[in-house]
Specification:
CATH topology of the largest domain: Helicase, Ruva Protein, domain 3
CATH superfamily of the largest domain: Cytochrome C biogenesis protein
Number of domains: 2
CATH architecture of the largest domain: Orthogonal Bundle
Strand content: under 5%
Number of helices: 6
Number of strands: 0
Shape: elongated
Structural class: mainly alpha
CATH class of the largest domain: Mainly Alpha
Helix content: 55-70%
Length: 169
């Protein structure tokens, strides 16, 4: 029984460890832990050009591996984090960044979601104001003219089965 529990614990640990595994291969890891940490952090900010919604740190694609190696080469050459990012953006364009920079040509990308949200809120507000205004006018429009009242009385007198029942009578 103890052996079975030990096996289950080992399998569970392996399963949980595998869920958080990255695509970085052992031969890619830098000897300096500080530089490796910088490379991993930068790799999480860069988009895999094949997978597109995955960072190069998580992707198994060959191009992602090439980009991880390129990041490590630039760090080993002494580039700062910004220099590495600028190099990759110059080479692959802004699309290589998982989170695009705030710049004049990405202004619409950053401002469009809040503008749509504000516009939708304004449209809902205007719609509700129109409904309230229409309901106010509608109540006044429910008043019967004298001709309509007389006709209603005649209809009710001719067919007493549709006349409203007196609850007190």
């Amino acid at each position: 029984m103890r052996k079975l529990i030990a096996i289950l614990v080992v399998v569970a640990c392996a399963a949980f460890a595998g869920a958080s595994a990255y695509a970085v291969q052992p031969d890619e890891i830098m000897a300096d832990p500080a530089k490796e940490a910088r490379a991993r952090e930068l790799s999480r900010e860069l988009r895999c050009m094949v997978c597109q919604n995955q960072s190069i740190d998580d992707s198994d694609a060959p191009l992602a591996r090439d980009l991880r190696l390129l990041v490590r080469e630039r760090i080993a050459a002494g580039d700062s984090d910004n220099q590495v990012i600028d190099f990759l953006v110059a080479r692959y364009g802004e699309f290589v960044l998982l989170k695009p920079r705030f710049s004049p040509h990405t202004l619409l990308l950053w401002l469009l979601p809040p503008l749509i949200l504000i516009g939708g809120g304004a449209a809902l507000w205007a719609y509700s104001r129109r409904r309230i205004a229409a309901a106010g006018v509608g109540d006044a429009g429910l008043q019967l003219t004298d001709n309509e009242k007389a006709r209603l009385e005649r209809l009710l007198e001719s067919d007493p089965s549709v006349a409203p029942k007196d609850p007190h009578g």
